[in-house]
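Is this the right way to post structure tokens for a design question? Let me know if I should format differently. Anyway, here goes:
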């Protein structure tokens, strides 16, 4: 279950809207990030990312 979702502002509009609606329905906090490139870099990957979810619970558990 997600605790917080990050969405890239330059992602495809239909993806952004669908994820926002789902987060609202599930009462999950949303934070916008400027670009997919930045979101990917924040996650330590070499490609862009439209969305990232921060999950509840301990890492690896």
């Amino acid at each position: 279950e997600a605790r917080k979702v990050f969405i890239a502002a330059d992602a495809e509009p239909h993806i952004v809207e669908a994820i926002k609606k789902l987060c609202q329905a599930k009462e999950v906090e949303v934070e916008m990030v400027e670009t997919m490139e930045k979101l990917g870099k924040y996650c330590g990957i070499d490609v862009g990312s439209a969305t990232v979810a921060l999950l509840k619970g301990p890492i690896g558990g």
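Format looks fine. Someone answered above. Worth noting: The chain is about 35% helix and 30% strand. The helical segments are 13-26, 36-42.
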